[in-house]
Write a structure and sequence with these properties.
The structure holds three protein chains of three kinds. By secondary structure, chain B is mainly α. Chain B has helices spanning 2-21, 25-45, 49-73, 82-92. In chain B, helix 2 packs antiparallel against helix 3 (49-73). Chain C has a single domain (2-121), classed as Helix Hairpins. Classes of the chains: A mainly alpha, B mainly alpha, C mainly alpha.
């Protein structure tokens, strides 16, 4: 009973709607006929002029936004920037006047934390260089994050600038490079004799300095980050002088992957071990050695070498990807 | 010592202003390299030799090299020389002016 | 005059503001990246100047002396050391993005890039 009533109701409704639609269409057609019939030539011309006038106004508005509007917004932006910058400088300089004097020993930053690092650092970490002992022992987890940041940055740069044999079909960058193979490598030196002789002398010295800085990171200024950067600079100098073909004999993308992976894994595993023993008060089996000897300070030497490898490979990877699009 | 440090800081500020004012991209990158070198001297005067070594290798070495390579990729170095500019235009068939 | 007493901090603030205005006022993307780098260096200078103590040596234990009065504060130096290396990777990432933008739009002027991108969307 109910469904029948509903059916009827819906039928009636659709009927009404279609009837209304039909009526509307008919009235529109009628109106159009009337319009066409009613328009005189003068009226048509008038409508056209009106349309042209509207277009002209629209064009002028566009031009205004393109030229004067951009200028005004540009000026406003510059003024706002200057105002913000001046406010910033005044606020920050006011803060500087409130700071304790430069170089005074009673600065609140010199609290018991730094005192502990200085007084107990040598006994607890075995590193003569307190900064290295701090960043690779007390704050080693932080440094693992930094190394991973370097690795991630190298990977993203590789994604962004990479090119291979097939990529010109789907990547606009690779297409440009494919169509103009010499566009950005045209002026590079090829077999420059002065550069090669200089590099022949300099590269071993630079690499040795880097190795020295890495291995003596716990005894003298330096460490994994600075030594790695120096070694990376040495590798870059080698590539500039002798080209990628010679470099590929001992350093390819696979070498890069292997070295960075092993270095990061070694870092993570050895630090996991020392955190585990430290947290559970188990004596660590790694001896600290005598301070000042090259084989001392427990894990710090290993960690320095790992960080050095990661930084070296990252610096070289940046250079190679920027210059050629691949390792 | 104090006077030397102040002189270095004044040099730093001059370098920063010069980087901001220079029109040519290559020149400003080279001035930025000088800024990094002076910064590494400032680190030594502040008794932080670790920072000095790192800044000299990273800031003045690798960062500047990356800037040079990026400038070469965007043809800002070629465009300095008229002959090379014409050559680059012929090779690329496009515009080589970027400093406007 | 506290500003002249804290001359390192003052210089760091001025450098920061020069870098900030370089980043905001220039249209060229490379100039913006250089400005960002200058801001990085200024912040490192400020941070390291907080740990410096007049008349003390670098924190490398020499001659077995281990008193607090002998060395400067090692914490800011350690933080800045990692910061410098991360800043170079940030720079490399920004430069790679700028190169990609150049290959897409054939310009490095930010206004032109925004205009071209707007046209692309329509």
């Amino acid at each position: 009973m109910k469904s029948k009533m509903m059916n009827k109701l819906s039928e009636w409704l659709t009927d009404e709607a279609s009837a209304l639609e039909r009526e509307m269409e008919a009235s529109q057609e009628r109106a159009a006929d009337e319009d066409e019939a009613a328009l005189t030539p003068a009226e048509i011309r008038w409508a056209q002029e009106e349309k042209e006038e509207e277009e002209r106004i629209a064009r002028r508005l566009n031009e205004w936004t393109d030229e004067t509007g951009t200028k005004i917004s540009r000026t406003l932006y510059s003024i706002l920037c200057l105002v913000i910058c001046l406010t910033l400088i005044v606020l920050l300089l006011y803060t500087v006047t409130e700071l304790p004097s430069f170089g005074s020993p009673d600065h609140p930053i010199n609290n018991e934390v730094s005192a502990r690092y200085i007084e107990k650092g040598l006994q607890e970490t075995g590193a003569v260089n307190i900064v290295t002992g701090m960043i690779l022992d007390y704050r080693a987890f932080d440094t693992l994050g930094e190394s991973s940041v370097l690795f991630t940055a190298a990977m993203v740069v590789l994604f962004l600038l990479r090119k291979d044999k097939e990529s010109h079909k789907y990547s606009p960058l690779a297409k440009v490079m494919h169509d103009n193979p010499h566009s950005d490598t045209y002026y590079e030196p090829k077999n420059d004799i002065i550069l090669q002789k200089t590099a022949f002398v300099l590269v071993p010295i630079v690499l040795l300095t880097g190795v020295y800085v890495v291995l003596n990171g716990h005894l003298s200024p330096g460490g994994g980050f600075s030594g790695g950067a120096i070694m990376g600079a040495g590798l870059i100098l080698y590539v500039i002088a002798f080209g990628f073909a010679k470099m590929r004999r001992f350093f390819t993308y696979k070498t890069y992957q292997f070295v960075v992976l092993i270095a990061l894994l070694t870092y993570a595993c050895s630090k996991c071990y020392s955190f585990f023993t430290g947290a559970n008060h188990i004596p660590s089996v790694i001896p600290l050695g005598t301070p000042g000897a090259i084989l001392s300070s427990g894990l710090i030497l290993v960690l320095n070498i790992c960080v050095g490898f990661v930084v070296t490979c990252t610096m070289y990877c940046f250079y190679a990807v920027f210059r050629k699009g691949e390792l | 010592m104090n006077v030397i440090v102040m002189l270095m800081l004044v040099f730093l500020i001059i370098c920063a202003v010069a980087v901001s004012m220079t029109k040519d991209l290559l020149t400003s990158v080279i001035i930025y390299m000088a800024y990094s070198m002076i910064m590494s001297v400032v680190w030594i005067t502040m008794e932080s030799p670790d920072l000095a070594i790192t800044e000299a290798a990273v800031g003045a070495g690798v960062t500047t090299l990356l800037f040079f390579l990026a400038l070469k990729k965007i043809h800002a170095i070629d465009a300095r020389n008229e002959v090379r500019k014409a050559h680059a235009q012929e090779k690329l068939g496009g515009e080589t002016e970027h400093e406007k | 005059m506290q500003l002249l007493v804290n001359y390192e901090e003052t210089a760091a603030i001025i450098l920061f503001c020069i870098g900030f205005s370089t980043m905001m006022l220039h249209k060229n993307l490379i100039k913006k990246i250089i400005g960002m780098d200058m801001m990085d260096a200024a912040i490192f200078l400020f941070l390291a100047s907080q740990g410096y103590i007049e008349g003390r040596k670098a924190p490398i234990v020499a001659g077995g002396v281990q008193s607090v009065e002998a060395y400067i504060n090692p914490i800011p130096a350690g933080l800045v050391l990692t910061g410098i290396v991360v800043s170079v990777s940030v720079t490399a990432l920004m430069l790679a993005l700028a190169v990609r933008l150049y290959y897409r739009y054939h310009t490095l002027n930010l206004d032109e890039i925004i205009a071209l991108a707007g046209k692309e969307e329509v």
